[in-house]
Amino acid sequence: MITVVGTGTSTEAPPVPGDVLAGAALVVGGRRHLDAVRLPEGAERIVLGPLAPALDAIGEYVGKELPVVVLASGDPGFFGIVRALAERFGAGRLDVRPGVSSVATAFARLGLPWDDAVVVSAHGRDLRTAVTVCRAHPKVAVLTGPGAGPAELGAALGDDRVLVVASALGDPERERVERVTPAEAAARDWGTAVSVVLCLDETRALGAVRTVAGVPARPDRWALDESEFAHRDSMITKFEVRALALARLGPRLGDLVWDVGAGSGSVAVECARLGAAVVAVEKTGDGVERIRANARAHGVDVDVVHGAAPAALSGLGDDPDAVFVGGGGRELPTIVTACARRARRTVVVAMAALDRVPAAREALTGAGFTCDGVLLQSSRLAPLPGDVTRLAATNPVFLLWGIRTPASSEGVAQ
């Protein structure tokens, strides 16, 4: 049997019951944990460093039916060692004694519930996912690591969030919980004591009563009717086109999506409702305000950039996972090429003009994308006098989509 003890955030002697350690043939943990407990006579100890050698050693003891104790910080079942042990030895061999996680402790220090928080780990992982989640959601906890701490997170975020940096949680002398702006976080050296970083939109930090914890539930519908968005003179991507565009874009939690030539921002808002972080690029001032109003009306965050593509694209930071191009005029091939050079996964282009289809298709294939498309032409039910119904045709729209092939991904900035 492998007994896994979560020591919580306390920096003092871990609360390990004596009966757990009694008879243990091997005790594994961090140096601080091992130094704080009295090992049984004859027990071997292994200081955790690289995980693979420790798992191999545990395997030798388990093979001989000898008891093993593993000491871990926080709750070892929450982004902790329980996963690796269960995968290697089977969950049935584990006796897990959980502690309080750093995430729960940090929110407790603020007096906030965290059932509606999204938790993302940047420890040993690409920081980009954590940044994108922080952009899209009002309450996020980020588990940090070397090269992915408060400074790096702050440097990648805008000023519409507050970072709460919790350091040395559980240490009565060194614990600190500090509210800072992203810019302030980026300008500091935070050392190695950071436990967790909370990224908050404080106007929405309390949140609503939840039934399902963690990641927000997907909306119950999408491809919303045009009437659910403010728009000018019906200049909006129609819901039939939007439905297929969303299916090809595949927006999801952790993704970054660009909506280029956003107009009313209907595609941008829908992508944000599905969990993605979104940047909408729009050249008209009234369009910018309209997009912001639509985002507010639907309770989502959309970063709106006032500028014309392709020039405005060079000022955008991270490369997007997916791009929707809904405008462009004569500049369309240049815009599609610029988007294709940076898109990690997909570019979707909507066009009303037949003449522009070949150039847009060539721009996608020239960038190494596999390209497909369809002409969408629909007729909607419309009432007539006398309580009868006719079919009212909508304008036909060409929808092209390019999917990046593995070979073409080598040129994308990582």
Describe the structure.
This protein is of the alpha/beta class and 414 residues long. It folds into 3 domains: 2-100, Tetrapyrrole methylase, N-terminal domain (Cobalt-precorrin-4 Transmethylase, domain 1, 3-Layer(aba) Sandwich); 103-204, Tetrapyrrole methylase, C-terminal domain (Methyltransferase, Cobalt-precorrin-4 Transmethylase, Domain 2), CATH 3.30.950.10; 226-411, Rossmann fold, CATH 3.40.50.150. 28% of the residues lie in helices and 25% in strands. The protein contains 13 helices and 19 strands. It has helices at residues 18-21, 31-36, 51-63, 81-89, 102-110, 127-136, 150-156, 182-186, 239-249, 266-273, 285-297, 332-342, 357-366, and strands spanning 2-6, 26-29, 44-47, 68-72, 94-97, 118-121, 139-143, 162-167, 176-180, 194-200, 256-260, 277-282, 303-306, 322-325, 346-351, 369-376, 379-384, 388-393, 397-404. The strands form 4 sheets. A 7-stranded mixed beta sheet has the order 13-12-11-14-15-19-16, with helices on both faces. It has a 5-stranded parallel beta sheet with strand order 3-2-4-1-5. The chain has a 5-stranded mixed beta sheet with strand order 6-7-10-8-9, sandwiched between helices. A hairpin with an 8-residue loop joins strand 8 (162-167) and strand 9 (176-180). Helix 12 (332-342) packs parallel to helix 13 (357-366). The two termini are 43 Å apart. Residues 19-184 form the Tetrapyrrole methylase domain. Pathway: Cofactor biosynthesis; adenosylcobalamin biosynthesis. GO terms for molecular function: protein methyltransferase activity. This is Precorrin-6Y C5,15-methyltransferase. It comes from Streptomyces cellostaticus.
